[in-house]
Each structure stands twice: as structure tokens, then as C-alpha cells.
Protein: 1-acyl-sn-glycerol-3-phosphate acyltransferase
Organism: Rhizobium anhuiense
Amino acid sequence: MIAWLRIALAAVVILAASIVLMPLQLLALYFDWRLRRRLPRIWHRIVCYCLGIRVRVTGRLEDRRPLMLCSNHSSWMDIMVMSAVADVAFIAKIEVRDWPIFGTLAKLQKSVFVVREERRKTGHQANEIAGRMADGEIVVLFPEGTTSDGNRLLEVKSSLFGAAAMAVPYSPTGTVVVQPVAVAYTRVHGIAMGRYHRPLAAWPGDIELLPHLLDIVRCGAIDAEVSFGEAVDYRTETNRKEVSATIALRIRNLLNSRLRGREIS
């Protein structure tokens, strides 16, 4: 009974926030106001609170621009958590655009939708990402290309790191900053999750969305830790694959440190 009351209350608050903020976001998108970058953070903070997702940040978001954040990806909650922490736009696969609820939210946040299978479109997509970063937007890339079980970092794909290279000529300093980020789900009701319970937070993709969402709301208390790591400067002479390998190593170390509760060098 209490769980269903929590679900009903969360739904009412989220609906009320959406009724107020979404029309304003549509106006901001239409007129390209800078407010369109800030409103999603307010909405996602409200949603995280209603869902019982408690976010803790370690490290510091880079002040320098242009900036690309590269993060591990284990759940739809990563979007909520990252958006609650910073004013960001996401790079998402084209299929997300047509998803119920999340597709609409992605479009409202002006995500960049990419078709990874069609190489002829890669240049145009990279140009769009580069242009957004050059304009001062923080772009988030999930370089694994899919969701994991939350216990490890999957193989990192280097292809879209090319967007950082394409933004270099537009940077006043000739540098694009690429910063690793780890999102780790560490506790439920204050108790360490461990490998066995972490799938409660993870959404590998073969799990239906609505039951998973209801489980999260019923739970009502999940701790998410966002860790910002040491950035890499991407310049004209930078090797993309080397940057990809460096960023992957740093994300992996950040993730393992948060999951194990101790620093890993």
C-alpha cells in the first residue's frame, strides 16, 4: 500500500512539474534561448527526488570549453542523474528518438541522434556535435554504445570521438576538452548493493521499461555516485584511438573506485 502511495505521489509531482516546465522548454527550443539548456536540469532534479535517486558528486566538472563528457552507461537513470548534475545534451542512437516517453524527453533536451550503421552520415553527425560543443554546450557521449549490467565498463567505441576532432578548429584555444565520467549505483536504502543487487538499477535493454521503472519507484532509495575524472586535451595532432583508450581506462578506474568504495590508481 505504501509503495503504491509513493508511486501515485511521485506521478502527481512529476506531472505537475512537466505541465509547468515543458511548454516553457518548447518555447526556449523554438526561439533557441539559452534557457533551453538549464530547464532540463531543474526537471531532472525534481524527477530524481521523486524517484528516490540520491545523487552524490565527486571530482569537478571542467570549466573549460568546448567540452565533451564520456561516461559509462548502465541504465536510463544515467540520463536523469547526469542531467541533474549539469546542463548537458546527449548523443543518442537514432532508435531512441521513437521510444515512448524517453524519445520525447530526448528531443526536448535537444539530443543529437546518430545512425552508427551508416558511415555516409557520420561526417554530418560529427559536424552537428562539433558545432554544438563549439557553441558552448556540454555534450555527453556514452562510448560503449549500449547499456551494461552496471558492474563493469564494456568495450569503448572510438568512432564518435571524431566529433571532438572536428570541433578543434572552432575552439579559440585550438583544444577540445574530453572528460571521463563514471556513474555508479552503489546503495539501496543505505545498504551496499553489491554485484548481485546492482541489476536493480541497471537496465541492460532486454528488460521491459515499465516494470523496471515501477521497481525503482517502489524502492524509493537508490544512491548514485557521479565521478568526474582528469580530462584529456584534444588537439589537431591528437590520436583519436589513444584518447579513446585513455578515457576508457580512466572511466574504468573511476567506476571501480566507486563500486569498491576505495580509490584505484
About this structure: The CA atoms of residues 43 and 207 lie 25 Å apart. The chain has a mean pLDDT of 87.
